[in-house]
Amino acid sequence: MARVIQGKHDVVRTVVTVLLAQGHLLVEDVPGVGKTMLAKALGRSIDCTVQRIQFTPDLLPSDVTGVSVFNQDARTFEFRPGAVFANIVVGDEINRASPKTQSALLEAMAEGQVTVDGTTYRLEEPFMVMATQNPIEMEGTYPLPEAQRDRFMARIEVGYPDPAAELEMIGAHSERDPLSELQPVTDAVTVARLVQAVRRLHASPAVLQYVVDLATASRRHPRLRLGISPRAALHLVRAARAHAALAGRGHVLPDDIQRLAVPVLAHRVILSSDAQLAHETADEVIADILAGVPVPAGVR
To answer: Fewer CB atoms near the end CB (10 Å): N or C, the chain?
Structure first.
């Protein structure tokens, strides 16, 4: 993936962390920084099924989940799967679709299944939604409700590359398409086994209590109108397990929690009116909470 997205090692590492933690990722940034390219690079790196959905105002929920079609010959209804039936689902500009279409992803993201006409269909594992949205052009868009933002394990910003990486990117992309040369380095079965191994990684009671203390502090913070949900605390622990595994450790440290706190928690909280008037950001408030909660010592 780093061959396609130059100079963004931390971004690529976060994407892989969310994949191994069996979560979903929201990529939010200005146009042209490689949001969709990042999602495509992940899909090309794994030998699995990949579907891309271009979210538009006229996109229907059945386009995402699938639809039952009547077969004249057999005199029965046949289910035709939608684009969500893939291991990696790339949702491009998700906030351009109507709330009804956006909500078609909720069951799939939360439970790994789709229910159509009273019948439930399981999705293949691993299953990951990588959605992108542009926070600048807000005309004709539908902001994601808090219930849906909470389904995303992490939110990241790709950001502008540094001059050296941008120079390398311009030279590489002008001569060829690095994405077309990307070869899979693993497959869906291996990733599914890695996901199960990550879930069994050791997290001590002290680390778990540290996460609960962070959640409690967020719910009492004067700058927040909505604190961290229990699902957010669970996602933070799962992401920390994956982060520790990528570091070659068999246990979670408080450093893993702190490293992932902003991308996992910041998009789930709602600032108070005073914080908005003071032009504070959710990232700054999460950093303030991290500074105020004691870190457990000697954790292993």
So the answer is: C
